Amino acid sequence: MGKMINKHQQTKSTFSKNLFWLGSAQVIGRIVRLASSIILARLFTPEIFGQVAIILTCFELICTPTRRITSASLIKMNDTELAASLTNANKINWLASITAFVAMSLLSWPLALYHQDTHLIAPMILMATSYLLLPLGMLHAAINLRANKMRVVGRAILWQTVCDGLLTATFALLGLGIWAIILPKVLVILIWIGIHRYHNPLPKADKSPHGQTIPKMFTFGSMVGLSDLSIALRQNIDYLLIGYFLGLEALGIYFFAFNTSLGISLGITQSYGTALYSHLCGSQKNDQQITVSKDLKARYTHSLSLVLKIAIPVIALQSLLSPYYVPLVYGNKWIEAGALPVFILLCLSGLVRPIGEAASQLLISINKSRLNLCVNLSFTLLLAITITVCSQWGLTAVALGILIIHLICMPALNLYIQLFVFSKKAIGTNEEQQNSSKRFNQEVHHDA
């Protein structure tokens, strides 16, 4: 019993350290980005912010399915299977990245035609070139995540974000306009690659039959990618619909309010999701399936409690002080444009956003990507309907609708996880328990 308690405490400590490294990297990076956004807010018009929102939204939606298309599989593998699967994983990474580059490049033309703004085309194509750089570091990043080297992962996020903010501010002051935002985002990919590759050689590729085939890895990665895409669509559907219903200027105001209000809290949430998936997968590698539900529930509950304890005070303080610091820091033109109520409402929605991130990572870790996809698509549909209806009354109504739908659905999702997912995992069938026990004994024998 004492060993189990010590192991549980050690697991909590490991996750807390991982979250600290990733969270601190995100927060420090967001502070630098905040300084950069102050310069941008004073130099750029809402129309330019609207253009940037369109480009970055398209990039995020296309990039998201490729991010974990192989890493989700690699993280769960043992050493033998990992070495035998690297070649196939690299092929899938390149195929996905080239497809993403072509898709975004082609998408730039109809978007420019719809918004009657040909200035969108060149920045979108330049932004798309960053997809072609990603495969140079994707396998190395997966190895670091698999080994729980969150200090390295956090360092990559930190320096990528810091350099992005510094370059953006410098280029903006030099008068580069929209290029001041797009060009740094391509250049800092090289920093991310360099940090993940530094002193991190890949395991020697093994052509043994123990590796996963391309179809099997691609199928699992596609399901995870679609689940991630549903989350990204949920997080970006507001940009698409506001741009469609209210125009680029309103989108620019919303984009400013969203990023300045949720920047730090979303950084914490994203770091939390990155650490949580490896944390939850670790419980299934080391424990028998018969007892995994208790350990899994403990890891999930503790991690969610921890991130909420961090996020809630930050968001509450930010909301209370916003009427004072928004005009002082960003300028009165944003107050006159009506950004303050939108800022406060979006900021408050961040109180429950970590719950959705936790639920998604949990479902993926227990091979319920299809359920995760259905849940996120359902929420995205509700969010789209809410935004469509509320847009008839303006931007503040849209922000209020987004807050209400998050406050209702995120706690409901957590309740569903507690009542149904964990109970099914805990009960199981005798046959499943026996098969899982056999697999566990085989793994122990193999490790020995």
Automatic annotation (TrEMBL):
GO CC aspect terms: plasma membrane
Q: Any idea where this protein resides?
A: Cell membrane
Q: Does the keyword Membrane apply?
A: yes
Q: Where are the transmembrane segments?
A: 94-114, 120-145, 166-193, 239-257, 303-322, 334-352, 373-394, 400-422
Identify the Pfam families for this entry: Polysacc_synt_3
The cross-references to InterPro entries, in alphabetical order and at most eight, read: Poly_Biosynth_Transport
- So which domain of life are we looking at? Bacteria
Topology of this chain in the membrane: Multi-pass membrane protein
Q: Which family does it belong to?
A: Belongs to the polysaccharide synthase family.
Q: What is this protein called?
A: Oligosaccharide flippase family protein
